[in-house]
């Protein structure tokens, strides 16, 4: 909600939803791990995972769906796998929001430095 207002008021320092980061990912960090996909493309295709679910948590979703099919009428036994998947999705969401905020702050910093120069 606030992002739409901020995008209207400060369009030059608010990154859009589909913008690729324009700053070095290591800027301000001494060491930072790169995120890697654990599930391969072949695994995701073999279980017919929809495109919208092919993210960094796909391996947890594959395990959850396998558990549901193995223990079918008693799917409540897969609560642990479901919790792991939903936790992964939440942590991915938080990380994406942190990256968005980092990009926004770096754009504001760049604008401020350009104005001072």
UniProtKB/TrEMBL annotation:
Could you list the residue ranges forming a coiled coil in this record? 90-117
Keywords of this entry: Coiled coil, Disulfide bond, Electron transport, Membrane, Mitochondrion, Mitochondrion inner membrane, Respiratory chain, Transport
Q: Where in the cell is it found?
A: Mitochondrion inner membrane; Mitochondrion intermembrane space
For this protein, the record's InterPro entries field holds:
NDUB7
> What are its GO cellular component terms?
mitochondrial inner membrane; mitochondrial intermembrane space
Q: Which domain of life is it from?
A: Eukaryota
Q: Name one Pfam family in it.
A: NDUF_B7
Q: Does the keyword Acyltransferase apply?
A: no
* Bilayer topology: Peripheral membrane protein
Role, per record: Accessory subunit of the mitochondrial membrane respiratory chain NADH dehydrogenase (Complex I), that is believed not to be involved in catalysis. Complex I functions in the transfer of electrons from NADH to the respiratory chain. The immediate electron acceptor for the enzyme is believed to be ubiquinone.
Q: Which family does it belong to?
A: Belongs to the complex I NDUFB7 subunit family.
Q: What is this protein called?
A: NADH dehydrogenase [ubiquinone] 1 beta subcomplex subunit 7
Organism annotation: Drosophila guanche (Fruit fly)
